[in-house]
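Re: weekly structure request thread

Next one in the queue (161 aa):
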Amino acid sequence: MTKTTARLAAALISAVALSTTAIGGARAQQPPVGGAPGGAPMQDPLGLSADQKKKIDAIQTKYKPQIAALQKKWQPQFLAIQKKYQALAQPLAKDNSPAGQKKQQELMGKMQAEMKPLMDKAMKETKPLQDKVTKEINQVLTPKQQATLKQLLGGMRAPGM
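Done, posted below.
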């Protein structure tokens, strides 16, 4: 993956990061920018042209402040819930018995139930921005590139894709 492809995937992931942050209480993993571990250059699975790279960089730059503001608003709330449940789960982590595993599952269910209303609000607020980013990037990509990007993102559905 080239630097631009990695940033493209990261931008789309960032646009949906608020919704995925709540799933499991963790941030969406972003591809490394600048190459693979060890400094090896990454392949460009999208086959972006120089013109596409410029256009995508411009889209990313355009929306970066808005994405950052939304993440700043919502992420602390998700992390607070995550920390709360991590503290509750820590004593259960050593108990591998069926009863211990059941308690862990119940705790996970409670955390998800507590996060759901917050996640719904965050997703509702971020959807217009997700739609804009996705629409603009899709206008730069060919249908084949769109399909490849969708596959690279692990089937995570971004609006318009």
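Residues 3-152 form one domain. The CA atoms of residues 8 and 56 lie 7 Å apart.
Next request, please.
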